[in-house]
Amino acid sequence: MIQSIKKHQFLLEELVKRDFKRKYKGAMFGMAWSIFNPLLMLLIMKVVFSHFFAGDIEHYTTYLFCGNIIFTFFSESTSEGMLALQGNAEIFTKVNVPKYLFLISKNTQTFLNFALTVLVFFVLCLFDGITFSFRFLLLLYPILMLLIFNMGAGLILSALYVFFRDMRYLWTVAMQIIMYVSAVFYSVDTFPEYAQKLFYLNPLFLFITYFRKIVLDNTVPSFGFHLIIAFYSLLALVIGILIYKKNDTEFLYYV
Amino acid sequence: MSVLKVENVSIRYKVGDFRQIGLKEYVIRRLKGNYHVSEFWADKDISFTLENGDFLGIIGANGAGKSTLLKAVSGIMTPVSGTIEVNGSVAALLELVSGFDPDLTVRENAYLRGAMLGYTRKYMDERYKDIIRFAELEEVENKPFKQLSTGMQSRLAFAVASLVQPDVLILDEILSVGDGAFAVKSSQKMKEIIENGAVTILVSHSLEQIKQYCNKCLWLDKGRQIAFGDTASVCEKYESFLKGKLTI
């Protein structure tokens, strides 16, 4: 696969460029918008939810932002990645190129966006009085895993979307639900213990929690915690790859 | 050594209610028993071999399986049975104009198309000027693609595609584009590419074109291979079939 990406590197680069251009087409502030957008979102959430939760959670702004940037990355990457295969039908029905390229391209674009928001996040941490430590370097782990997870989810969703065009609307609903069960703006500490365990079934919650543990608690999550995250991410990727492999010659009929 | 060897190739094609439907409609249709998918053989048991320098013309009515066969040779579709052996690179120039992005500039689209056709960036950098000059689009190279007229769009498509240097060149009814001077220029260019390549395959409805260019000819009908051989004899059979003198 790496070899095949190398071979198609030029195409991949051009696709990434195109995806960037499409994304910011008509956007007034171009890429700056990817910084304003999460900040705006954060501001609204802060105003609304501070009233309910800020009393119990220290550094509530940073707490909220951890949840927010990760959820936004996942949400953007999957809902736009979902359209990546169908959107490039004109290309893959005429030229013989690996179909996962389109998803890699889309994920590169959303990832660079995310990287920007992470920078903004660190600046905000400063303002919120967070002490930086070398442990912050460990954040690379959940970021890498989230990238893999998004890629896997994107492969699965984009294949489904080719087969069923209403997946788009179903996924919008699913995203809403995922957001509410990912503890973006509340803390799970007040839940009974068995309910807290249920949150571990939600990969997104784990990514967010990893960030919070490092940034807010200044502790390194357990080894098991790392394993669960790797498990979910690789599982999504493997399922995605298998679906693509199985349907490689089928997609053609559906687009 | 043969450049392209197609042996007993059969390709299945699917049609039915599955296209562009949602999960909801799928479930409803399934429940009502109103969901139909039929598979048929777009190509059945096709065999032919092309040597260095061959120019193959494929003839047959609509639905004969010509395009499907080309897609299999270019690797976009996979045959259910049989083998396709290619010694070298394949470039298929199918429906040139689609696949461009309306919001990218002419330059960006040229690079994207070049990448799709498998060129390297270095090659594109070297040849970009020639492409634009050939397409006569120097004045609009930084304008969005959507501002181009249809004629200009196909000129760009042709100019980028004309840089291919494949061993197997696949053409779906395109030997020239544009009008007047550009048509002459493009058909000359096309001849150059064909002469440089090892093998060319052309699908055409024009028997005149086939007779003019091709030394070999393949006649398909509803997925079956009716005849393969030198152009004169196959075309003769095909013409008498068209006149109703020959039944297959």
DSSP helix count of chain A? 13
Largest interface: A-B, 29 and 38 residues
SS strand fraction of chain A: under 5%
CATH class of the largest domain in chain B: Alpha Beta
CATH architecture of the largest domain in chain B: 3-Layer(aba) Sandwich
- Helical amount among residues of chain B, as a percent range? 25-40%
Termini separation of chain A comes to 24 Å
Mean of pLDDT of chain B: 88
Summarize the structure.
The complex is a heterodimer of chains A (255) and B (248). Chain A has 255 residues and is an all-alpha fold. Chain A has one domain.
Secondary-structure blueprint of this entry?
The complex is a heterodimer of chains A (255) and B (248).
Chain A: H1 2-7, H2 9-23, H3 33-54, H4 60-81, H5 84-87, H6 89-92, H7 100-127, H8 140-163, H9 167-181, H10 193-198, H11 203-217, H12 223-247, H13 251-254
Chain B: E1 2-16, H1 23-32, E2 37-51, E3 55-59, H2 66-73, E4 81-86, E5 90-93, H3 106-116, H4 121-135, H5 150-161, E6 168-172, H6 180-196, E7 199-203, H7 207-213, E8 216-221, E9 224-230, H8 231-242
Parallel strand pairs in B: 3-7, 3-8, 5-6, 6-7
Antiparallel strand pairs in B: 1-2, 1-4, 8-9
Describe this structure in words.
- The complex is a heterodimer of chains A (255) and B (248).
- Chain A is an all-alpha fold.
- Chain A has one domain.
- Helices cover 75% and strands 0% of the residues of chain A.
- Chain A has 13 helices and no strands.
- By secondary structure, chain B is an alpha/beta fold.
- Chain B has two domains: 115 residues, 3-Layer(aba) Sandwich (Rossmann fold), CATH 3.40.50; 91 residues, 3-Layer(aba) Sandwich (Rossmann fold).
- Chain B contains eight helices and nine strands.
- In chain B, α6 links the parallel β6 and β7.
- In chain B, α3 crosses α4, α3 packs across α5 and α4 crosses α5.
- The two termini of chain B are 33 Å apart.
- The model of chain B has no long low-confidence stretch (mean pLDDT 88).
- The interface between A and B is medium-sized, with 29 and 38 residues.
